[in-house]
Design brief:
Blueprint lengths: L4 E7 L2 E6 L3 E6 L15 E5 L2 E6 L15 E5 L6 E5 L1 E7 L13 E7 L2 E6 L1 H4 L6
Parallel strand pairs: 2-10, 5-7
Antiparallel strand pairs: 1-2, 1-8, 3-6, 4-5, 6-7, 9-10
Amino acid sequence: MGDGTLILFTLGEARFGVPMASVREIVRAEAARAGAAAPVGSLGYLDVRGQSLPIVDPRPDLQLAADAPCENVVVIDDERGPFGLLVEQVVGTARVDGLSDVGCAGRGIAGIGELADGLVVVLEPLELGLALAA
C-alpha cells in the first residue's frame, strides 16, 4: 500500500480509497465510448490525453447500486496498461497506518482503514482491473 496515503472517493453512501501510489491522475468523467473492441469487464473507453483507456465501474463487484452519476475517473497505472476506475466523487486524500481484514467479501477489497472521521473501505485497484486482462 506504499506509504498508506489514499485517494478517497464515494460510491453510494460509502467512502472508499485506493493507494495513491497506484494513481496516475484523476480526470472528469465523460461519456465513455462503448464498442465491440472494449475489453470484457469494461464499460468502454475514455480518451485521456490522447490515450484510450478502458473504464471499469467497481459498483457491480462491490454489490452497490449504480444510482448516482459518476463525476470522476481515477486513472490507475497497471503493468498490463493503465485503466480508469469510475467513481461518483473524489473527496480528498488521507493516510491510514494499517488495514483490518474483517472478512470483506468481494473482489478488489484490500481491507478497512480507520480515519479520524470514520472508516474507509480500501480497494485493491489492480484486482478490480483483472477482468481487463482476459
